[in-house]
Design a protein that fits this description.
Alkaline Phosphatase, subunit A, 4-stranded antiparallel sheet, 2 domains, alpha/beta, 8-stranded mixed sheet, 22 helices
Length: 620
Protein backbone atom coordinates (compact mmCIF):
# COMPACT_ATOMS: atom_id res chain seq x y z
CA UNK A 1 0.00 0.00 0.00
CA UNK A 2 2.95 2.28 0.73
CA UNK A 3 4.10 1.93 -2.87
CA UNK A 4 0.66 2.90 -4.18
CA UNK A 5 0.65 5.97 -1.95
CA UNK A 6 4.07 6.98 -3.24
CA UNK A 7 2.89 6.55 -6.81
CA UNK A 8 -0.14 8.62 -5.91
CA UNK A 9 2.18 11.44 -4.95
CA UNK A 10 3.57 11.26 -8.47
CA UNK A 11 0.16 11.19 -10.11
CA UNK A 12 1.34 13.05 -13.20
CA UNK A 13 3.85 10.33 -14.05
CA UNK A 14 1.58 7.49 -12.96
CA UNK A 15 -1.32 8.45 -15.22
CA UNK A 16 1.03 9.24 -18.09
CA UNK A 17 2.45 5.71 -17.94
CA UNK A 18 -1.01 4.14 -17.64
CA UNK A 19 -2.34 5.99 -20.67
CA UNK A 20 0.82 5.36 -22.64
CA UNK A 21 0.21 1.64 -22.21
CA UNK A 22 -3.36 2.04 -23.48
CA UNK A 23 -2.49 4.15 -26.48
CA UNK A 24 0.26 1.64 -27.34
CA UNK A 25 -2.34 -1.15 -27.35
CA UNK A 26 -4.54 0.88 -29.71
CA UNK A 27 -1.61 1.59 -32.01
CA UNK A 28 -0.60 -2.06 -31.99
CA UNK A 29 -4.07 -3.08 -33.26
CA UNK A 30 -4.82 -0.18 -35.61
CA UNK A 31 -1.54 0.78 -37.27
CA UNK A 32 0.58 -1.63 -39.27
CA UNK A 33 3.87 -0.56 -37.69
CA UNK A 34 2.45 -0.42 -34.17
CA UNK A 35 3.67 1.98 -31.48
CA UNK A 36 7.13 3.57 -31.49
CA UNK A 37 9.02 6.29 -29.64
CA UNK A 38 7.28 8.75 -31.97
CA UNK A 39 4.00 7.64 -30.43
CA UNK A 40 5.06 9.36 -27.21
CA UNK A 41 5.57 12.64 -29.05
CA UNK A 42 2.08 12.55 -30.55
CA UNK A 43 -0.04 11.10 -27.71
CA UNK A 44 1.65 12.11 -24.44
CA UNK A 45 1.47 15.92 -24.96
CA UNK A 46 -2.31 15.66 -25.17
CA UNK A 47 -2.42 13.78 -21.84
CA UNK A 48 -0.29 16.52 -20.30
CA UNK A 49 -2.57 19.28 -21.54
CA UNK A 50 -5.44 17.70 -19.63
CA UNK A 51 -3.31 16.97 -16.56
CA UNK A 52 -2.07 20.56 -16.46
CA UNK A 53 -5.66 21.81 -16.50
CA UNK A 54 -6.53 19.50 -13.61
CA UNK A 55 -3.55 20.73 -11.59
CA UNK A 56 -4.46 24.36 -12.29
CA UNK A 57 -8.19 24.31 -11.63
CA UNK A 58 -8.83 21.43 -9.22
CA UNK A 59 -8.14 22.64 -5.69
CA UNK A 60 -8.98 19.26 -4.17
CA UNK A 61 -9.92 15.74 -5.20
CA UNK A 62 -7.32 15.88 -7.94
CA UNK A 63 -6.89 12.12 -7.93
CA UNK A 64 -10.60 11.78 -8.69
CA UNK A 65 -10.29 14.08 -11.70
CA UNK A 66 -7.23 12.19 -12.91
CA UNK A 67 -9.21 8.97 -12.64
CA UNK A 68 -12.12 10.46 -14.58
CA UNK A 69 -9.76 11.71 -17.31
CA UNK A 70 -8.13 8.29 -17.37
CA UNK A 71 -11.54 6.64 -17.79
CA UNK A 72 -12.54 8.97 -20.65
CA UNK A 73 -9.26 8.40 -22.50
CA UNK A 74 -9.65 4.65 -21.91
CA UNK A 75 -13.17 4.63 -23.36
CA UNK A 76 -11.93 6.55 -26.40
CA UNK A 77 -9.09 4.12 -27.07
CA UNK A 78 -11.41 1.16 -26.54
CA UNK A 79 -13.89 2.66 -29.04
CA UNK A 80 -11.07 3.18 -31.54
CA UNK A 81 -10.13 -0.50 -31.22
CA UNK A 82 -13.66 -1.80 -31.66
CA UNK A 83 -14.59 0.53 -34.50
CA UNK A 84 -11.45 -0.28 -36.42
CA UNK A 85 -12.05 -4.02 -36.12
CA UNK A 86 -15.23 -3.69 -38.20
CA UNK A 87 -14.91 -0.52 -40.26
CA UNK A 88 -11.14 -0.38 -40.79
CA UNK A 89 -10.95 3.35 -40.04
CA UNK A 90 -10.42 5.56 -37.01
CA UNK A 91 -13.65 6.43 -35.24
CA UNK A 92 -14.50 10.13 -34.90
CA UNK A 93 -17.24 12.09 -33.19
CA UNK A 94 -19.49 11.50 -36.22
CA UNK A 95 -20.14 7.96 -35.00
CA UNK A 96 -21.88 9.31 -31.88
CA UNK A 97 -25.04 9.76 -33.94
CA UNK A 98 -25.19 5.98 -34.38
CA UNK A 99 -24.29 5.05 -30.80
CA UNK A 100 -27.81 3.73 -30.22
CA UNK A 101 -27.19 1.01 -32.82
CA UNK A 102 -24.57 -0.63 -30.57
CA UNK A 103 -27.20 -1.96 -28.18
CA UNK A 104 -29.31 -3.29 -31.04
CA UNK A 105 -26.41 -5.14 -32.69
CA UNK A 106 -24.77 -6.09 -29.41
CA UNK A 107 -23.75 -9.63 -30.37
CA UNK A 108 -22.19 -8.35 -33.55
CA UNK A 109 -20.22 -5.71 -31.65
CA UNK A 110 -19.05 -7.97 -28.84
CA UNK A 111 -17.85 -10.66 -31.23
CA UNK A 112 -15.19 -8.26 -32.51
CA UNK A 113 -13.57 -7.93 -29.11
CA UNK A 114 -10.42 -9.78 -28.14
CA UNK A 115 -10.48 -10.46 -24.37
CA UNK A 116 -7.15 -8.72 -23.81
CA UNK A 117 -8.73 -5.40 -24.87
CA UNK A 118 -10.42 -5.36 -21.46
CA UNK A 119 -7.02 -5.10 -19.77
CA UNK A 120 -7.08 -1.37 -20.43
CA UNK A 121 -9.89 -1.04 -17.87
CA UNK A 122 -8.07 -2.85 -15.03
CA UNK A 123 -6.29 0.21 -13.66
CA UNK A 124 -9.54 2.22 -13.70
CA UNK A 125 -11.21 -0.42 -11.54
CA UNK A 126 -8.22 -0.52 -9.19
CA UNK A 127 -8.07 3.27 -8.88
CA UNK A 128 -11.76 3.42 -8.00
CA UNK A 129 -11.54 0.46 -5.62
CA UNK A 130 -8.55 1.67 -3.59
CA UNK A 131 -10.19 4.82 -2.14
CA UNK A 132 -13.30 2.79 -1.33
CA UNK A 133 -11.18 0.16 0.43
CA UNK A 134 -9.23 2.81 2.30
CA UNK A 135 -12.37 4.59 3.46
CA UNK A 136 -13.66 1.36 4.95
CA UNK A 137 -10.31 0.47 6.47
CA UNK A 138 -9.63 3.74 8.20
CA UNK A 139 -11.01 7.20 7.70
CA UNK A 140 -7.70 8.62 8.92
CA UNK A 141 -5.68 7.33 5.97
CA UNK A 142 -5.28 10.05 3.35
CA UNK A 143 -3.34 10.26 0.11
CA UNK A 144 -1.21 13.34 0.49
CA UNK A 145 -0.73 14.62 -3.05
CA UNK A 146 1.99 17.24 -3.25
CA UNK A 147 1.27 20.26 -5.46
CA UNK A 148 3.22 20.82 -8.65
CA UNK A 149 4.96 24.14 -9.30
CA UNK A 150 2.74 26.49 -11.32
CA UNK A 151 5.78 27.66 -13.26
CA UNK A 152 6.56 24.08 -14.21
CA UNK A 153 2.92 23.59 -15.17
CA UNK A 154 2.99 26.70 -17.40
CA UNK A 155 6.14 25.55 -19.18
CA UNK A 156 4.82 22.00 -19.62
CA UNK A 157 1.46 23.28 -20.90
CA UNK A 158 3.15 25.54 -23.48
CA UNK A 159 5.46 22.75 -24.64
CA UNK A 160 2.50 20.33 -24.91
CA UNK A 161 0.48 22.81 -26.98
CA UNK A 162 3.44 23.29 -29.31
CA UNK A 163 3.99 19.54 -29.72
CA UNK A 164 0.29 18.96 -30.46
CA UNK A 165 0.30 21.80 -32.99
CA UNK A 166 3.39 20.52 -34.78
CA UNK A 167 1.88 17.03 -34.93
CA UNK A 168 -1.34 18.32 -36.51
CA UNK A 169 -0.30 21.14 -38.82
CA UNK A 170 2.10 19.34 -41.23
CA UNK A 171 -0.37 16.46 -41.65
CA UNK A 172 -3.63 18.37 -42.03
CA UNK A 173 -3.72 17.94 -45.82
CA UNK A 174 -3.21 14.16 -45.78
CA UNK A 175 -5.91 12.41 -47.83
CA UNK A 176 -5.79 9.15 -45.88
CA UNK A 177 -7.57 9.56 -42.52
CA UNK A 178 -5.78 6.55 -40.99
CA UNK A 179 -2.46 8.04 -42.06
CA UNK A 180 -3.50 11.36 -40.56
CA UNK A 181 -4.28 9.72 -37.25
CA UNK A 182 -0.96 7.88 -37.27
CA UNK A 183 1.06 11.01 -38.00
CA UNK A 184 -0.93 13.35 -35.74
CA UNK A 185 -1.64 10.91 -32.94
CA UNK A 186 -5.09 9.51 -32.26
CA UNK A 187 -6.11 12.18 -29.76
CA UNK A 188 -4.85 15.08 -31.87
CA UNK A 189 -6.68 13.58 -34.86
CA UNK A 190 -9.95 13.41 -32.93
CA UNK A 191 -9.73 17.11 -32.13
CA UNK A 192 -8.58 17.98 -35.64
CA UNK A 193 -11.67 16.37 -37.24
CA UNK A 194 -13.97 18.60 -35.20
CA UNK A 195 -12.39 21.80 -36.49
CA UNK A 196 -11.60 20.49 -39.99
CA UNK A 197 -15.25 19.66 -40.65
CA UNK A 198 -16.25 23.30 -40.23
CA UNK A 199 -14.49 24.11 -43.53
CA UNK A 200 -15.71 21.12 -45.55
CA UNK A 201 -18.41 23.05 -47.41
CA UNK A 202 -15.86 25.49 -48.87
CA UNK A 203 -15.59 23.56 -52.14
CA UNK A 204 -19.33 23.14 -52.71
CA UNK A 205 -20.25 23.20 -56.39
CA UNK A 206 -23.17 25.42 -57.36
CA UNK A 207 -26.32 23.60 -58.44
CA UNK A 208 -26.32 25.04 -61.95
CA UNK A 209 -22.91 23.49 -62.54
CA UNK A 210 -24.03 20.00 -61.50
CA UNK A 211 -25.39 18.54 -64.72
CA UNK A 212 -25.53 15.04 -66.11
CA UNK A 213 -23.34 15.95 -69.10
CA UNK A 214 -20.73 17.31 -66.65
CA UNK A 215 -20.84 14.05 -64.66
CA UNK A 216 -20.62 11.97 -67.82
CA UNK A 217 -17.62 13.97 -68.99
CA UNK A 218 -15.77 13.33 -65.73
CA UNK A 219 -16.57 9.63 -65.95
CA UNK A 220 -15.60 9.48 -69.63
CA UNK A 221 -19.08 8.32 -70.67
CA UNK A 222 -20.63 9.14 -74.02
CA UNK A 223 -24.32 8.17 -73.82
CA UNK A 224 -25.62 6.58 -76.97
CA UNK A 225 -28.85 7.64 -78.60
CA UNK A 226 -29.39 3.97 -79.44
CA UNK A 227 -28.38 2.20 -76.24
CA UNK A 228 -28.38 -1.56 -76.53
CA UNK A 229 -31.32 -3.28 -74.76
CA UNK A 230 -33.10 0.03 -74.17
CA UNK A 231 -36.70 -0.91 -73.36
CA UNK A 232 -36.02 -4.60 -73.98
CA UNK A 233 -38.00 -5.44 -70.82
CA UNK A 234 -40.38 -2.52 -70.82
CA UNK A 235 -43.37 -3.20 -68.60
CA UNK A 236 -41.69 -6.14 -66.86
CA UNK A 237 -41.73 -6.34 -63.08
CA UNK A 238 -38.52 -5.41 -61.28
CA UNK A 239 -37.41 -7.51 -58.29
CA UNK A 240 -34.22 -6.59 -56.47
CA UNK A 241 -32.97 -8.98 -53.80
CA UNK A 242 -30.36 -7.60 -51.41
CA UNK A 243 -28.49 -10.42 -49.67
CA UNK A 244 -27.04 -9.82 -46.23
CA UNK A 245 -23.21 -9.90 -46.06
CA UNK A 246 -22.95 -11.97 -49.27
CA UNK A 247 -19.48 -11.89 -50.84
CA UNK A 248 -18.65 -13.10 -54.32
CA UNK A 249 -16.15 -15.78 -53.25
CA UNK A 250 -19.09 -17.83 -51.96
CA UNK A 251 -20.25 -18.53 -55.52
CA UNK A 252 -18.77 -21.86 -56.53
CA UNK A 253 -17.19 -22.39 -53.10
CA UNK A 254 -17.19 -25.97 -51.86
CA UNK A 255 -16.34 -27.26 -48.40
CA UNK A 256 -15.35 -30.93 -48.36
CA UNK A 257 -16.94 -31.30 -51.79
CA UNK A 258 -20.29 -29.74 -50.79
CA UNK A 259 -21.50 -26.50 -52.40
CA UNK A 260 -22.00 -23.73 -49.87
CA UNK A 261 -24.55 -21.78 -51.94
CA UNK A 262 -25.96 -24.17 -54.56
CA UNK A 263 -28.92 -21.94 -55.45
CA UNK A 264 -26.84 -18.83 -56.03
CA UNK A 265 -24.38 -20.98 -57.98
CA UNK A 266 -27.21 -22.09 -60.26
CA UNK A 267 -28.52 -18.55 -60.70
CA UNK A 268 -25.02 -17.32 -61.54
CA UNK A 269 -24.53 -20.07 -64.13
CA UNK A 270 -27.89 -19.48 -65.84
CA UNK A 271 -27.81 -15.66 -65.99
CA UNK A 272 -25.39 -12.73 -66.16
CA UNK A 273 -22.96 -12.98 -63.29
CA UNK A 274 -20.98 -9.80 -62.76
CA UNK A 275 -18.00 -11.11 -60.81
CA UNK A 276 -16.18 -7.76 -60.52
CA UNK A 277 -19.02 -6.01 -58.74
CA UNK A 278 -18.39 -4.12 -55.51
CA UNK A 279 -20.13 -2.81 -52.41
CA UNK A 280 -19.92 0.97 -51.96
CA UNK A 281 -21.61 1.41 -48.60
CA UNK A 282 -20.52 3.65 -45.73
CA UNK A 283 -21.43 3.90 -42.07
CA UNK A 284 -25.04 2.88 -42.76
CA UNK A 285 -24.00 -0.50 -44.20
CA UNK A 286 -27.23 -2.31 -45.24
CA UNK A 287 -29.35 0.86 -45.35
CA UNK A 288 -26.61 2.58 -47.36
CA UNK A 289 -26.85 -0.20 -49.94
CA UNK A 290 -30.58 0.45 -50.26
CA UNK A 291 -29.85 4.16 -50.71
CA UNK A 292 -27.14 3.60 -53.34
CA UNK A 293 -29.21 1.22 -55.43
CA UNK A 294 -32.31 3.40 -55.38
CA UNK A 295 -30.71 6.84 -55.90
CA UNK A 296 -27.45 6.27 -57.80
CA UNK A 297 -25.87 8.85 -55.47
CA UNK A 298 -22.77 8.31 -53.36
CA UNK A 299 -23.13 7.84 -49.61
CA UNK A 300 -22.02 10.68 -47.31
CA UNK A 301 -18.48 10.79 -45.99
CA UNK A 302 -19.05 10.69 -42.25
CA UNK A 303 -22.52 9.33 -41.62
CA UNK A 304 -25.22 6.97 -42.79
CA UNK A 305 -27.22 8.22 -45.77
CA UNK A 306 -30.34 7.74 -43.66
CA UNK A 307 -29.29 10.47 -41.22
CA UNK A 308 -29.45 13.73 -43.21
CA UNK A 309 -29.72 12.82 -46.90
CA UNK A 310 -33.21 11.41 -46.42
CA UNK A 311 -34.43 14.85 -45.37
CA UNK A 312 -34.11 15.85 -49.03
CA UNK A 313 -36.38 15.35 -52.03
CA UNK A 314 -34.31 12.61 -53.67
CA UNK A 315 -34.47 11.41 -57.28
CA UNK A 316 -34.93 7.65 -57.14
CA UNK A 317 -35.74 4.39 -58.87
CA UNK A 318 -39.18 4.00 -57.24
CA UNK A 319 -40.13 7.48 -58.44
CA UNK A 320 -38.86 6.80 -61.99
CA UNK A 321 -40.74 3.53 -62.19
CA UNK A 322 -43.80 5.10 -60.56
CA UNK A 323 -43.96 7.65 -63.37
CA UNK A 324 -43.94 4.72 -65.80
CA UNK A 325 -46.96 3.13 -64.12
CA UNK A 326 -45.27 0.86 -61.58
CA UNK A 327 -46.34 0.27 -57.99
CA UNK A 328 -43.53 -0.27 -55.50
CA UNK A 329 -42.86 -1.92 -52.15
CA UNK A 330 -39.91 -2.87 -49.99
CA UNK A 331 -39.69 -5.87 -47.65
CA UNK A 332 -37.51 -6.13 -44.52
CA UNK A 333 -38.14 -8.18 -41.35
CA UNK A 334 -36.54 -5.64 -39.00
CA UNK A 335 -38.30 -2.63 -37.48
CA UNK A 336 -38.73 0.12 -40.04
CA UNK A 337 -37.24 2.75 -37.75
CA UNK A 338 -33.90 0.91 -37.48
CA UNK A 339 -31.40 2.99 -39.49
CA UNK A 340 -34.22 5.51 -39.95
CA UNK A 341 -35.72 3.48 -42.78
CA UNK A 342 -39.14 5.04 -42.41
CA UNK A 343 -37.63 8.34 -43.57
CA UNK A 344 -35.56 6.59 -46.23
CA UNK A 345 -38.57 4.89 -47.78
CA UNK A 346 -40.55 8.13 -47.79
CA UNK A 347 -37.64 10.02 -49.32
CA UNK A 348 -37.09 7.60 -52.19
CA UNK A 349 -40.80 7.14 -52.81
CA UNK A 350 -41.76 3.54 -52.09
CA UNK A 351 -45.56 3.20 -52.15
CA UNK A 352 -45.45 0.96 -49.10
CA UNK A 353 -43.10 -1.00 -46.90
CA UNK A 354 -43.36 -4.28 -45.02
CA UNK A 355 -41.39 -4.60 -41.79
CA UNK A 356 -41.49 -6.52 -38.49
CA UNK A 357 -45.10 -5.46 -37.93
CA UNK A 358 -46.00 -7.54 -41.02
CA UNK A 359 -43.53 -10.42 -40.72
CA UNK A 360 -43.77 -10.86 -36.96
CA UNK A 361 -40.95 -12.07 -34.73
CA UNK A 362 -41.50 -15.80 -34.92
CA UNK A 363 -38.73 -18.09 -36.16
CA UNK A 364 -36.33 -15.37 -35.02
CA UNK A 365 -32.86 -15.12 -36.60
CA UNK A 366 -30.55 -12.11 -36.15
CA UNK A 367 -32.89 -9.09 -35.71
CA UNK A 368 -36.23 -10.43 -36.85
CA UNK A 369 -38.09 -13.22 -38.58
CA UNK A 370 -35.92 -15.59 -40.59
CA UNK A 371 -35.29 -15.45 -44.33
CA UNK A 372 -37.68 -18.38 -44.66
CA UNK A 373 -40.46 -16.22 -43.21
CA UNK A 374 -39.34 -13.20 -45.25
CA UNK A 375 -39.62 -15.04 -48.56
CA UNK A 376 -42.71 -17.10 -47.66
CA UNK A 377 -44.75 -14.00 -46.77
CA UNK A 378 -43.29 -11.84 -49.52
CA UNK A 379 -44.27 -14.19 -52.33
CA UNK A 380 -47.91 -13.85 -51.32
CA UNK A 381 -47.73 -10.07 -51.54
CA UNK A 382 -45.94 -10.21 -54.90
CA UNK A 383 -48.66 -12.45 -56.28
CA UNK A 384 -51.26 -9.91 -55.18
CA UNK A 385 -49.28 -7.09 -56.79
CA UNK A 386 -48.91 -9.15 -59.95
CA UNK A 387 -52.67 -9.65 -60.17
CA UNK A 388 -53.32 -5.90 -60.04
CA UNK A 389 -52.61 -5.47 -63.74
CA UNK A 390 -49.78 -2.98 -63.06
CA UNK A 391 -46.10 -3.86 -63.17
CA UNK A 392 -44.40 -3.69 -59.79
CA UNK A 393 -41.00 -2.93 -58.30
CA UNK A 394 -40.12 -4.90 -55.16
CA UNK A 395 -36.93 -4.65 -53.15
CA UNK A 396 -36.38 -7.53 -50.72
CA UNK A 397 -33.80 -7.25 -47.94
CA UNK A 398 -32.57 -10.52 -46.43
CA UNK A 399 -31.10 -10.49 -42.92
CA UNK A 400 -30.55 -13.96 -41.47
CA UNK A 401 -26.87 -14.12 -42.42
CA UNK A 402 -25.98 -11.05 -40.34
CA UNK A 403 -22.71 -10.74 -38.45
CA UNK A 404 -21.74 -12.54 -36.15
CA UNK A 405 -23.59 -15.34 -37.98
CA UNK A 406 -25.15 -17.11 -35.00
CA UNK A 407 -28.01 -18.97 -36.65
CA UNK A 408 -29.98 -21.46 -34.53
CA UNK A 409 -28.48 -24.94 -34.38
CA UNK A 410 -31.70 -26.35 -35.87
CA UNK A 411 -31.05 -24.42 -39.09
CA UNK A 412 -27.45 -25.63 -39.52
CA UNK A 413 -27.35 -28.28 -42.23
CA UNK A 414 -23.81 -27.87 -43.58
CA UNK A 415 -21.19 -29.89 -41.71
CA UNK A 416 -17.80 -28.24 -41.50
CA UNK A 417 -14.31 -29.69 -41.25
CA UNK A 418 -12.80 -29.43 -37.78
CA UNK A 419 -10.53 -26.52 -38.71
CA UNK A 420 -13.60 -24.33 -39.42
CA UNK A 421 -15.59 -25.39 -36.37
CA UNK A 422 -16.41 -22.58 -33.92
CA UNK A 423 -14.77 -19.91 -36.09
CA UNK A 424 -16.22 -16.71 -37.53
CA UNK A 425 -15.51 -18.04 -41.03
CA UNK A 426 -17.26 -21.33 -40.29
CA UNK A 427 -20.32 -19.56 -38.89
CA UNK A 428 -20.35 -17.23 -41.90
CA UNK A 429 -20.35 -20.15 -44.31
CA UNK A 430 -23.12 -21.98 -42.43
CA UNK A 431 -25.35 -18.90 -42.20
CA UNK A 432 -24.95 -18.20 -45.93
CA UNK A 433 -25.74 -21.85 -46.65
CA UNK A 434 -28.98 -21.46 -44.67
CA UNK A 435 -29.90 -18.18 -46.39
CA UNK A 436 -29.20 -19.77 -49.76
CA UNK A 437 -31.67 -22.56 -49.03
CA UNK A 438 -34.38 -20.01 -48.17
CA UNK A 439 -33.55 -18.06 -51.34
CA UNK A 440 -33.80 -21.22 -53.46
CA UNK A 441 -37.34 -21.86 -52.21
CA UNK A 442 -38.29 -18.27 -53.05
CA UNK A 443 -36.89 -18.51 -56.58
CA UNK A 444 -38.88 -21.73 -57.08
CA UNK A 445 -42.00 -19.89 -55.89
CA UNK A 446 -41.35 -17.04 -58.34
CA UNK A 447 -41.06 -19.54 -61.17
CA UNK A 448 -44.10 -21.52 -60.06
CA UNK A 449 -46.24 -18.36 -59.94
CA UNK A 450 -45.08 -17.20 -63.39
CA UNK A 451 -43.60 -14.00 -61.93
CA UNK A 452 -40.01 -15.04 -62.71
CA UNK A 453 -40.55 -15.14 -66.46
CA UNK A 454 -42.24 -11.73 -66.40
CA UNK A 455 -39.65 -9.97 -64.24
CA UNK A 456 -36.20 -8.43 -64.22
CA UNK A 457 -34.54 -9.95 -61.17
CA UNK A 458 -31.27 -8.67 -59.70
CA UNK A 459 -29.47 -10.22 -56.75
CA UNK A 460 -26.46 -8.66 -55.04
CA UNK A 461 -24.70 -8.56 -51.67
CA UNK A 462 -25.20 -5.51 -49.49
CA UNK A 463 -21.72 -5.31 -47.97
CA UNK A 464 -18.72 -7.36 -46.89
CA UNK A 465 -19.27 -10.17 -44.41
CA UNK A 466 -15.69 -10.84 -43.36
CA UNK A 467 -13.83 -7.53 -42.85
CA UNK A 468 -10.12 -8.18 -43.25
CA UNK A 469 -9.45 -6.04 -40.17
CA UNK A 470 -11.59 -8.39 -38.03
CA UNK A 471 -9.67 -11.55 -38.89
CA UNK A 472 -6.69 -12.75 -36.90
CA UNK A 473 -3.71 -14.56 -38.44
CA UNK A 474 -5.29 -17.98 -38.00
CA UNK A 475 -8.48 -16.85 -39.72
CA UNK A 476 -6.52 -15.25 -42.56
CA UNK A 477 -4.78 -18.59 -43.09
CA UNK A 478 -8.16 -20.33 -43.21
CA UNK A 479 -9.30 -17.86 -45.86
CA UNK A 480 -6.13 -18.48 -47.85
CA UNK A 481 -6.88 -22.22 -47.78
CA UNK A 482 -10.43 -21.58 -49.03
CA UNK A 483 -9.53 -19.09 -51.77
CA UNK A 484 -6.09 -20.27 -52.83
CA UNK A 485 -4.61 -16.81 -52.27
CA UNK A 486 -4.23 -14.20 -49.56
CA UNK A 487 -7.51 -12.60 -48.54
CA UNK A 488 -7.48 -8.83 -49.06
CA UNK A 489 -9.43 -5.71 -49.97
CA UNK A 490 -10.37 -6.96 -53.45
CA UNK A 491 -11.99 -10.09 -52.00
CA UNK A 492 -13.60 -8.26 -49.10
CA UNK A 493 -15.46 -5.63 -51.14
CA UNK A 494 -16.27 -7.98 -54.04
CA UNK A 495 -19.96 -8.89 -53.96
CA UNK A 496 -21.85 -10.64 -56.76
CA UNK A 497 -24.44 -9.15 -59.05
CA UNK A 498 -26.61 -11.73 -60.77
CA UNK A 499 -29.00 -10.35 -63.38
CA UNK A 500 -31.98 -12.13 -64.91
CA UNK A 501 -33.61 -10.09 -67.68
CA UNK A 502 -36.04 -11.94 -70.00
CA UNK A 503 -34.84 -11.93 -73.59
CA UNK A 504 -31.59 -10.17 -72.67
CA UNK A 505 -29.49 -12.24 -70.32
CA UNK A 506 -28.02 -15.69 -70.89
CA UNK A 507 -25.40 -17.80 -69.09
CA UNK A 508 -22.31 -15.58 -68.93
CA UNK A 509 -19.67 -14.32 -66.55
CA UNK A 510 -19.25 -10.57 -67.03
CA UNK A 511 -15.80 -9.28 -66.11
CA UNK A 512 -16.55 -5.58 -66.29
CA UNK A 513 -16.25 -3.61 -63.06
CA UNK A 514 -19.42 -2.28 -61.48
CA UNK A 515 -20.86 -1.14 -58.17
CA UNK A 516 -24.20 -0.80 -56.42
CA UNK A 517 -24.52 2.76 -57.72
CA UNK A 518 -24.80 1.34 -61.27
CA UNK A 519 -28.02 -0.62 -60.69
CA UNK A 520 -30.45 2.29 -61.19
CA UNK A 521 -29.21 3.28 -64.68
CA UNK A 522 -29.05 -0.39 -65.71
CA UNK A 523 -32.67 -1.02 -64.68
CA UNK A 524 -33.75 2.25 -66.30
CA UNK A 525 -32.22 1.12 -69.58
CA UNK A 526 -33.92 -2.29 -69.50
CA UNK A 527 -37.31 -0.76 -68.69
CA UNK A 528 -36.97 1.92 -71.38
CA UNK A 529 -36.91 4.91 -69.00
CA UNK A 530 -34.71 7.84 -69.95
CA UNK A 531 -32.60 9.27 -67.12
CA UNK A 532 -30.78 11.82 -69.25
CA UNK A 533 -32.36 14.62 -67.20
CA UNK A 534 -32.01 12.93 -63.78
CA UNK A 535 -28.74 13.32 -61.91
CA UNK A 536 -27.12 9.93 -61.35
CA UNK A 537 -23.53 8.88 -60.74
CA UNK A 538 -23.76 5.26 -61.79
CA UNK A 539 -23.56 3.91 -65.31
CA UNK A 540 -25.49 1.39 -67.37
CA UNK A 541 -23.67 -1.93 -67.01
CA UNK A 542 -25.12 -3.15 -70.31
CA UNK A 543 -23.67 -0.32 -72.38
CA UNK A 544 -20.68 1.30 -70.65
CA UNK A 545 -17.36 -0.32 -69.94
CA UNK A 546 -14.52 1.23 -67.96
CA UNK A 547 -15.56 2.22 -64.47
CA UNK A 548 -14.09 4.00 -61.45
CA UNK A 549 -15.79 3.46 -58.09
CA UNK A 550 -15.02 5.98 -55.31
CA UNK A 551 -15.01 4.25 -51.92
CA UNK A 552 -15.96 5.77 -48.59
CA UNK A 553 -15.82 5.01 -44.89
CA UNK A 554 -14.47 1.45 -45.02
CA UNK A 555 -11.43 2.80 -46.86
CA UNK A 556 -9.70 6.18 -46.48
CA UNK A 557 -10.85 9.13 -48.61
CA UNK A 558 -9.45 9.02 -52.10
CA UNK A 559 -9.66 5.21 -52.31
CA UNK A 560 -11.05 3.87 -55.57
CA UNK A 561 -11.77 0.62 -57.35
CA UNK A 562 -10.89 0.53 -61.03
CA UNK A 563 -11.06 -2.21 -63.64
CA UNK A 564 -7.84 -3.70 -62.31
CA UNK A 565 -7.16 -2.68 -58.70
CA UNK A 566 -8.21 -1.27 -55.36
CA UNK A 567 -6.20 1.92 -54.81
CA UNK A 568 -5.68 3.37 -51.32
CA UNK A 569 -3.89 6.73 -51.09
CA UNK A 570 -1.23 7.55 -48.54
CA UNK A 571 -0.69 11.17 -47.58
CA UNK A 572 -1.55 11.85 -51.23
CA UNK A 573 -1.87 9.96 -54.51
CA UNK A 574 1.87 9.58 -54.98
CA UNK A 575 2.47 7.36 -51.95
CA UNK A 576 -0.70 5.30 -52.39
CA UNK A 577 -0.91 1.52 -52.67
CA UNK A 578 -2.50 -0.61 -55.39
CA UNK A 579 -4.10 -3.94 -54.55
CA UNK A 580 -4.78 -5.95 -57.75
CA UNK A 581 -8.28 -7.33 -58.25
CA UNK A 582 -6.65 -10.42 -59.73
CA UNK A 583 -4.42 -11.95 -57.03
CA UNK A 584 -2.18 -13.39 -59.75
CA UNK A 585 -1.58 -9.95 -61.29
CA UNK A 586 1.57 -8.68 -59.59
CA UNK A 587 2.52 -6.19 -62.28
CA UNK A 588 -0.68 -4.26 -62.96
CA UNK A 589 -0.46 -0.68 -64.17
CA UNK A 590 -2.07 0.77 -61.05
CA UNK A 591 -4.70 3.47 -60.70
CA UNK A 592 -3.82 6.70 -62.47
CA UNK A 593 -3.77 10.12 -60.86
CA UNK A 594 -6.51 11.13 -63.29
CA UNK A 595 -8.78 8.37 -61.98
CA UNK A 596 -8.02 9.37 -58.40
CA UNK A 597 -8.86 13.01 -59.10
CA UNK A 598 -11.99 12.03 -61.04
CA UNK A 599 -13.25 10.10 -58.04
CA UNK A 600 -12.71 13.01 -55.65
CA UNK A 601 -14.48 15.36 -58.05
CA UNK A 602 -17.45 13.00 -58.40
CA UNK A 603 -17.80 12.65 -54.64
CA UNK A 604 -17.76 16.42 -54.22
CA UNK A 605 -20.40 16.82 -56.94
CA UNK A 606 -22.66 14.25 -55.28
CA UNK A 607 -22.27 15.83 -51.84
CA UNK A 608 -22.90 19.29 -53.23
CA UNK A 609 -25.94 18.12 -55.16
CA UNK A 610 -27.66 16.46 -52.19
CA UNK A 611 -26.97 19.36 -49.83
CA UNK A 612 -28.69 21.76 -52.23
CA UNK A 613 -31.75 19.63 -52.92
CA UNK A 614 -35.00 20.99 -51.46
CA UNK A 615 -36.00 19.68 -48.05
CA UNK A 616 -38.85 17.18 -48.06
CA UNK A 617 -40.89 19.33 -45.73
CA UNK A 618 -41.25 21.70 -48.69
CA UNK A 619 -42.76 18.90 -50.77
CA UNK A 620 -46.47 19.35 -51.35
Amino acid sequence: MGLLIKLGNRRFLLFTLLLLFKCSLAWFVVFEDGPSWETMLTEVPFFWLVFCLIEWFATKRKLLYYTIANLLFTLLYFTVLMYYKYYGIIVTYHALSQADKVTKVGNSTYSLMDPYYLLIFVDVIVLIAIPLWLSKKSKRIQLSLRPISRTALSVLFAVSVALCFFSIWPNRASMNENKQAEEMGILNYEVFTIFADSTEDAEMVEMEDITQPAINEIKGIEPSANAEFFGADKGKNVIIIQMESFQNFLIGLEVDGVEVTPNMNKLAKENFHYNNFYTMVGQGTTSDAEYLVNTSLYVPKHEAATKDNVKKILPSLPKLLGEAGYTSATFHTNEVDFWNRRELYDAIGFDRYYDKSFFGDGDHVAFGASDEVLYAKTIGELEKMNESGRPFYAQIISMSSHHPYNIPESKVTLELPEKLDDTLIGRYIQSQNYSDKALGTFIDDLKRSGIWDDSIVLLYGDHQGLPVYSLDNKELELMKDLLGHDYGYADMFNIPLVMHAPGVTFPAVIEQTGGQIDILPTVANLTGISIADQIHFGQDLLNQGENVLPMRHFLPSGSIITNSEVFVPGIAYEDGTNYPLDPLDEHGGGATKEQYEQALELLNLSDSYVKQLPDREQEE
